[in-house]
Design a protein that fits this description.
Elements (H helix, E strand, L loop, with lengths): L5 E3 L2 E4 L15 E3 L4 E8 L4 E4 L2 E5 L2 E2 L5 H15 L2 E6 L11 E5 L6 H7 L4 E2 L7 H13 L3 H4 L2 H6 L17
Parallel strand pairs: 6-9
Antiparallel strand pairs: 1-2, 2-3, 4-5, 4-8, 5-6, 7-10, 8-9
């Protein structure tokens, strides 16, 4: 098995544990940053924003849209579950097209990517413009679509084939809830 370890600003994607199904897999399992700055959480303001001892922080690698509302509500609930009383933060790139500061990659106290989990679960979209982990997030987004994860991508493959489905186009309002 080839060991793949990528270090960027103290963060890494870890090799997956070897199992009978994944023995041939060379893809990393998750984005981690166990030594990123640890900050206290004051509150989760919404599905994108956490108020911390460091200030107001928004996710860098992913974002949650307000519609459909049930998706945003689920994403905020999951964010609250992951955050706890402390999070680790990693600044995005120094050269970015973002006009406002305050965007950071966010991790659990143990250093696991919260944004990654929201994207994997089909509850968040990726920031696809820049960032040191952009390639990883593009991969996660593709996998979420392929597995029809969460309320954003459920029915995606049928939608692509023109079959009836309950796929929701991110950003459009829907009156029903899943």
């Amino acid at each position: 098995m080839v060991v793949l370890l990528v270090l960027v600003s103290g963060c890494a994607t870890a090799d997956p544990p070897v199992s009978s199904d994944a023995a041939d897999s060379n893809e990393p399992e998750s984005l981690e940053c166990r030594d990123c700055e640890l900050v206290d959480v004051v509150e989760v303001k919404d599905a994108n924003t956490i108020i911390t001892s460091f200030g107001e922080i928004q996710m860098y690698g992913a974002y949650v849209i307000d519609q459909p509302e049930d998706c945003a509500t689920k994403a905020e609930e999951r964010l609250r579950n992951f955050v706890g009383s402390e999070i680790r933060i990693e600044p995005g790139p120094a050269q970015t097209i973002r006009v406002d500061s305050g965007h950071y990659y966010i991790y659990t106290k143990d250093g696991l990517s919260i944004e990654e989990q929201l994207v994997r679960e089909g509850l968040a979209l990726i920031w696809g413009q820049d960032g040191q982990h952009l390639g990883w997030f593009v991969y996660l987004d593709s996998a979420a679509k392929e597995h029809e994860s969460g309320c954003f991508w459920k029915g995606w493959n049928a939608f692509q084939r023109g079959e009836p489905s309950n796929f929701r186009i991110p950003g459009l309002a829907y009156s029903d809830s899943d």
